Structures are given as C-alpha cells and as structure tokens.
TrEMBL record:
GO terms for cellular component: plasma membrane. This is CidA/LrgA family protein. It is found in: Cell membrane. Its main location: membrane. The chain crosses the membrane at residues 21-40, 46-67. It comes from the Bacteria. Keywords: Cell membrane, Membrane, Transmembrane, Transmembrane helix. The keyword Transport does not apply. It is a multi-pass membrane protein.
Amino acid sequence: MFLRIVKLEWVERSAELLTRHMMLFFVPYIVGTLAFLPVLRENGLAIAVSLVGSTLIVMLVAGGVAARIGRKAPLAPESEQGKASANL
C-alpha cells in the first residue's frame, strides 16, 4: 500500500473482518499458555536464558557471515564508480 501497488479499497473489507475477529486468533495461544503455566513457572528462567542466548548466537553468526561476505566482495575501480554516479 505504501508503494501504491495495492489499493486500500481492495483490502479494506478483509482487513476490517480480520481486525474485528482478532481475539479469536489469540485464544488458542492463551489457552495453551494457561495449560502449561506450571511448567513455565518451574522452567521460566531456563526458558528465558535459552531464548536470549540463542537470539544472541544467531545475531553474532549472522553478523559474522555478513562481515565475511562484505570483505570478500570485490570493489569496483574508480573509473567505473564515476560512471555509475554520473548516470544517476
């Protein structure tokens, strides 16, 4: 919609329906959480540590891969860079 490829009129009716019934989508998650509340209380710290730790590991690995790929990318010669900026 930001790029104006999809018009508001095309999705407005469906969006209103989904927004109106949004709570129905979350009920299974809420009931499941309540069913496992004793397990979550017993293991809450371990779950939180594993979530934070795994997130940090993924971020570090993704950053390392991006840094390596960035270092291996060939740089364009000065003459080609000047041509590219002149065409803009």
